[in-house]
Design a protein that fits this description.
This protein is of the alpha/beta class. Among the domains are: about 1-120, Homeodomain-like (Arc Repressor Mutant, subunit A), CATH 1.10.10.60; about 165-290, 3-Layer(aba) Sandwich (Rossmann fold). The chain has helices at about 1-20, 25-35, 40-50, 55-70, 75-80, 90-100, 130-165, 185-200, 210-215, 220-230, 270-285, 295-300, 305-320, 325-340, 345-360, 370-385, 390-405, 410-420, 425-435, 440-455, 460-470, 470-485, 490-500, 505-520, 525-535, 540-555, 560-570, 575-590, 610-620; strands at about 165-170, 175, 205, 230-240, 245-255, 260-270. Strands 1, 2, 3, 4, 5 and 6 form a 6-stranded mixed sheet that branches. Helix 25 (about 525-535) packs parallel to helix 27. It starts with a helix and ends in a 5-residue tail after the last helix.
């Protein structure tokens, strides 16, 4: 069997050598030439040499590169192209990762050992050994790599057991295009990788976010992997030239910082779907996970086959994640255009539903709750008609059941389907639901899972969940750690809530004022909480001024739940009758904030009141 493995390796080396300067010669081409499937070839080569197929190709190219560099007749760029690397930068990165020195310092690499990969042992030096010892040395040379391989495999398995899970952090894909406006594309590729890898059972994915780079720009890959508690880190860059794209992607061992796999793809944009699936499969293979036919089918769940529609969706998703009113408007336009090109694009329908909800949220405050939710459900039903198992659509449908129908049971059923694979928005919405229903310990556990999988998600539910579990100091510490690099509406909103409800009224007022200045919008929710802070700190005149502002706003629209927050201020003023009246108005207006009824701290003293209990029962909270 060893002989057969060696013959296979020799044949593979010959094929790579014959195609050494062909940058397009990769795993697929090699498997076709040798006449077996990619996965079968990967398993055979892994067993024979401890390498994946892509590692084998790359390291063979790098060994040849080392030989050329030591000859000293070519520049680094020339050598890169001679051995099949179309990017000198990418070549230098791979070379340094394997040999520990950049190509310009190739003379420092020990040519008798360090550059050799498992299974490829040079025998030229045997000529100086007595003939009778050659056979023994050859046998040792053959056996030793396998012995080391099995030792390393055992060590690797023990290490993976210690880490409890196969895990990968996806760093933001770098936009190498000349146009900064192509940032949507690099984010879209990284986002697709997160979504596809999250569909693979047994792999934990820490998704990409620009906040990670802002906070950790000077940290090494090993430091980032340690902070995020992942076994591997996926890094990549994207260039877009008209309808041609180049993606350079590689996977780094989070413990050692060594590259375990790297590949570059030059494709037409039409081939982006297949390319993304190939990357996902390679990442899975590096973690010794084979994709079943069922899992493969999940990789494309909800996508389109129309590349133009897909590019519009990437733009829409990019705008949506700005969490701004202008971003929501642009996201809506792009989604509509994508659906016009492909009416069966489930993810675009789902995102359009999410945009509709956002426009009626406490942050969007453009539509009243019923109008926003009525628009959203049209798109969500269409998405689920196309793709019944789409998690993103189920999460938004759960939101509809909760906020429009006040049907808590149906909402939870949908939320559970919305997190069958990791879905950031789905997790966040489910945390809210658990807090609404008094299941605060469960909410905190899920909020912690959300942070574990997406540490820099801008709308983290940790602050509120820690508050409801009476961990005020931990909530404050978490909020301040976020505000050091994430000064946005979401974080300030939650921090202001914490300050208000832990008695730091003046700091709460200052925080709410920052939100007004940041967004240039006087949100009803922030007006209500600021009014409560004024009331609790004895500044009743200012509190009543904000009541008047909210009343004037309600005459125009119920968007943003103005009646609910008028009740918040009256409750803080200890004017129970007025607080209960305005809560009844909020319920009659079906305001978006109603599911927060029992968890709004300013209403705690109202809980014992008969009229309040009647409202709770009318809304249909569990246990009433």
């Amino acid at each position: 069997m060893i002989r057969d493995d060696q013959e296979m390796i020799k044949k593979l080396e010959q094929l790579v050598e014959e195609n050494l300067g062909n940058e397009q010669f990769g795993v697929g081409e090699l498997s076709r030439h040798i006449g077996i499937s990619r996965s079968h070839l990967h398993r055979k080569l892994r067993a024979a040499s401890g390498q994946s197929v892509s590692q084998f190709i790359r390291e063979y190219r790098l060994r040849k590169a080392l030989e050329l560099l030591k000859e000293g007749q070519h520049t680094v760029s020339e050598v890169a192209y001679l051995v099949g690397f179309s990017s000198a930068t990418y070549f230098s990165r791979c070379f340094t990762g394997v040999y520990g020195h950049p190509p310009s310092q190739a003379d420092k690499v020990d040519s008798h050992g360090h550059e050799q990969g498992p299974g490829q042992v040079k025998l030229q030096w045997i000529k100086s050994i007595p003939r009778r010892q050659v056979g023994l040395l050859v046998l040792l040379a053959i056996i030793l790599p396998y012995t080391l391989f099995f030792i390393l495999q055992l060590s690797s398995k023990n290490r993976m057991t210690d880490e409890m899970t196969k895990s990968v952090a996806i760093l933001p894909f770098e936009n190498l295009s000349n146009e900064p406006s192509n940032a949507y594309f690099s984010m879209g590729v990284g986002d697709a990788m997160t979504r596809k890898l999250s569909a693979i059972s047994g792999i934990r994915v820490v998704s990409q976010t620009d906040m990670l780079l802002k906070g950790d720009r000077n940290e090494s890959v090993v430091e980032i992997a340690s902070k995020l508690n992942t076994s591997f880190v996926l890094k990549g860059s994207v260039q877009k030239f008209g309808d041609v794209i180049r993606v350079e992607v590689g996977m780094v061992n989070g413990k050692t910082g060594q590259w375990v796999w790297a590949e570059n793809f030059d494709r037409r944009f039409d081939d982006i779907f297949q390319m993304q699936n190939e990357i996902a499969e390679q990442v899975a293979l590096q973690m010794e996970t084979t994709l079943s036919p069922e899992t493969r089918s999940k990789l494309d769940l909800g996508y389109t086959s129309n590349p133009v529609a897909y590019e519009l969706f990437m733009k829409a998703n990019y705008e949506f994640t700005t969490y701004s009113r202008s971003g929501y408007k642009r996201a809506e336009e792009y989604c509509v255009q994508a659906i016009e090109l492909d009416s069966g694009f489930a993810l675009a329908h789902s995102l359009l539903g999410n945009v509709s909800i956002a426009k009626g949220s406490i942050f969007g405050v453009e539509l009243d709750a019923k109008e926003a939710l009525s628009q959203a459900i049209i798109h969500i039903r269409k998405a689920l008609e196309i793709e019944p198992n789409l998690p993103e659509a189920h999460a938004v449908k759960g939101f509809y059941h909760l906020y429009y129908e006040w049907d808590f049971k149906k909402a939870e059923q949908e939320y559970k389907m919305g997190i069958e694979r990791f879905n950031t928005e789905g997790y966040a919405l489910y945390v809210d639901y658990l807090n609404f229903t008094g299941r605060h310990k469960e909410a905190l556990k899920m909020a912690q899972d959300l942070v574990h999988n997406e540490p820099y998600y801008p709308n983290s539910r940790m602050i509120l969940s820690l508050f409801y579990n009476h961990q005020i100091d931990e909530a404050r510490e978490f909020a301040l750690s976020r505000l050091r690099f994430m000064h946005n509406y979401m974080t300030l909103d939650s921090y202001g809530f914490l300050l208000l409800n832990s008695g730091d009224y003046q700091e709460a007022i200052q925080t709410f004022q920052q939100i007004f200045e940041l967004e240039n919008i006087r949100f009803p929710r922030i007006l209500g909480w600021m009014g409560a802070a004024y009331a609790r700190s004895g500044q009743q005149v200012k509190a009543r001024e904000l009541i008047e502002e909210l009343m004037q706003r309600r005459e125009l629209t119920s968007a943003g739940s103005p009646a609910f927050f008028i009740a918040v201020i009256y409750a803080a003023l200890d004017e129970t009758k007025d607080a209960l009246y305005w809560l009844s108005v909020a319920i009659d207006d079906h305001e978006m904030e109603i599911p927060w009824l029992t968890t709004e701290p300013q209403f705690y003293l109202l809980h014992k009141h008969k009229d309040f209990r009647t409202m709770v029962k009318k809304v249909g909270f569990p246990g009433t």
